Structures are given as structure tokens and as C-alpha cells.
Amino acid sequence: MDKLIIKPTKKSLDVKCVPGEINLVGNSILADPKVFFDPIFDWVDEYVKQPPERTVINFRLEYVDTASVQRIIEMLTKLREIKYDGHDLSVNWYFEMNDPELLELGEIMDGRLGLEFNFIKY
């Protein structure tokens, strides 16, 4: 499976998807989140067909708008399928100590999706 790399801008995430690890870093303030996330969804659709035994998803978000949050939830919902198929899936949710809103967002997703979230202060 090929890797997916999307270079960041001031308003879009730095994305690196390789078998076993998915990284989304930075800001997601997008005019059209569907257009930005479509290549990620295409990659995830292929990934879930033959995932490795263990997958780690790393989020190190600075700011994320509401429309992007919805797309992230959709992506995690799709990736959750591999957990149900017996593969190990965990989410590392990095947050700054002085950003309680970002921590709360991660906690909401954790409760909603039933995935193994690790909350990591930096």
C-alpha cells in the first residue's frame, strides 16, 4: 500500500499516512473539508481492506473547525472497522495544557466512538 503525504498550509493539516501509522498535525480551517479529506478517505478505504496487526493514529491539532471535526469523526468511524476485525487500533490525542477545548473535543470523540484514546499533554 502506498503512503499518503499532504503538505500543510496555514489552514490545512500536515498529513502522513503509512501502513500502521496515521498522523494529522496542525490546523484544519478549511473552506471545503470534503475536498481536503477526500484523498484521506480514499486511502483509508484501501487501508481497511488489509490493515497491519497494529495501527496508531496521532492527532496533534492546533485548531480544528466544526466541519473538519465531522470529517475526522467519519474517518475514525471507518477506521474503527479494523478494531472490530481483531486488529489493534489506538488514538494518541496530543493537547496543550492551556487548551482545555481541544482536550474536551478528544474526550467527546473518545466517548462517542469507543476507541482507545490516549491523552498526551505537551
Radius of gyration, in Å, reads 14 Å
The shape is: globular
State the share of residues found in helices, binned by percent: 25-40%
**Which class do the helix and strand fractions yield?**
alpha/beta
Mean pLDDT: 96
Report how far apart the termini are.
32 Å
CATH first level: Alpha Beta
Question: How much strand content do the residues show?
Answer: 25-35%
Count, helices: 3
User: How many E-type strands?
Assistant: 6
Going across the major beta sheet, what is the strand order? 1-2-3-4-5-6
Run of helices and strands: EEEHEHEHE
Any guess at the CATH architecture? Answer: 2-Layer Sandwich
Tally of distinct domains: 1
CATH topology: Transcription Regulator spoIIAA
Low-confidence blocks of residues: none
Biggest pleated-sheet summary: 6 strands, mixed
From the structure above, extract its key features:
122 residues; alpha/beta; Transcription Regulator spoIIAA; six-stranded mixed sheet; 3 helices; 34% strand; globular
What is the element layout, followed by pairings?
Layout: E1 4-6, E2 14-18, E3 21-28, H1 33-47, E4 54-64, H2 66-84, E5 88-95, H3 100-113, E6 116-121
Parallel strand pairs: 3-4, 4-5, 5-6
Antiparallel strand pairs: 1-2, 2-3
Helix pairs in contact: 1-2
